[in-house]
Design a protein that fits this description.
The chain is α/β, with parallel strands linked by helices. It has helices spanning about 60-65, 85-90, 105-110, 120-130, 150-160, 175, 180-190, 230-245, 265-275, and strands spanning about 20, 35-40, 70, 100, 135-140, 165-170, 195-200, 210, 215-220, 250-260. The chain has a single domain, classed as Alpha-Beta Barrel (TIM Barrel). It is built from nine helices and ten strands. Helix 8 (about 230-245) crosses helix 9.
Length: about 290
């Protein structure tokens, strides 16, 4: 994920500009799971680290699912895979594994969000096919999509079928500059049972809004090639997740790690799971790195 990534982070201050905020609709829940994953399973750098040496590309997902229990599934941003492909993917992962597909870019980057789009119906059909292996799907708004279009967005989100889980990722700075408008928008998300995507990236600290609108949240963490600050920021997230656990405001978290080279996600995921799993009440996936053993 290039959004907000810094080439040189030596001058970056990793501040946390927003206080955690819980909106309506999430009270009295219990944190049941934290699922971790990467944006894709196709990086050949996983070979010898997570995948056995000599692994074929059509085996990558099978090995990926032995270490992670969720995938961000960025591929759907570019095209919706055929049903036959979805059948193969679904058969390669265990029952508890979750796919979290991104809305196609033709939908999220259209001049106007269209709830009657034929492509949207195809996307929803894909979600329906995934069944219990669908985690949540997220709408990533482009950087030019400002809060001036909030009514359009709310109308679009409220039209989505209630039987599926959806989340939205905001990128334009206007969503975070006016606290009153921000409160109105996030309250509307809560009313429509739409989750938030919280993004943690170096040069856009404003998108780290820490707002919960349902009992499920997606966190997208952009690391910097295992720089020491990556681990310090993971420490922040383990503290924040434990705080949410004490407050009993969440049922589940999807924690997706991005790195300049995708196979580095595994190293940070191991650290994350090792630290956070010391809280025994959490159900956290525990990736294992086998570098050098194959």
């Amino acid at each position: 994920m290039k959004f907000g990534r810094a080439e040189d982070i030596s001058q970056v201050t990793f501040n946390y500009p927003h206080k955690p905020t819980v909106y309506s609709g999430v009270e009295d829940s219990v944190l049941l799971f934290v699922k971790t994953g990467a944006p894709a399973w196709g990086d050949k750098g996983f070979i010898g680290k997570l995948y056995p040496k000599g692994s074929r590309t059509n085996e990558f997902l099978k090995y990926y699912a032995m270490h992670f229990d969720a995938i961000e599934l960025n591929t759907t941003f570019y095209r919706i895979p055929p049903i036959d492909t979805l059948k193969k993917w679904s058969a390669m992962v265990p029952s508890e594994f979750k796919f979290c597909p991104k809305f196609p870019q033709q939908l999220s980057r259209a001049s106007r969000l269209n709830p009657t789009s034929a492509l949207l119906q195809d996307f929803l059909h894909m979600i329906d096919f995934l069944g219990e292996k669908h985690g949540l799907s997220f709408l990533q708004l482009p950087e030019h999509f400002s809060i001036q279009r909030k009514n359009e967005l709310i109308d679009y989100l409220s039209s989505l079928p209630v039987q599926f889980r959806f989340a939205v990722e905001f990128r334009h700075p206007s969503w975070f500059t006016d606290q009153e408008l921000m409160y109105q928008v996030f309250s509307k998300l809560a009313e429509s049972n739409i989750s938030t995507v919280i993004t943690d990236t170096a040069l856009r600290r404003d998108v780290l809004h820490l707002s919960l609108t349902t009992d499920t949240v997606m966190i997208r963490f952009t690391g910097n090639a295992l720089h020491p600050t990556d681990f310090k920021r993971i420490d922040f997230w383990t503290r924040q997740i434990r705080a949410w656990q004490v407050q009993k405001v969440l049922q589940g978290i999807f924690f997706f790690i991005h790195q300049p080279q995708e196979h580095l996600c595994a190293d940070l995921a191991v650290y994350f799971s090792d630290v956070i799993s010391t809280t025994s009440e959490l159900n956290v996936s525990r990736p294992r790195i086998f570098e050098g053993l194959f």
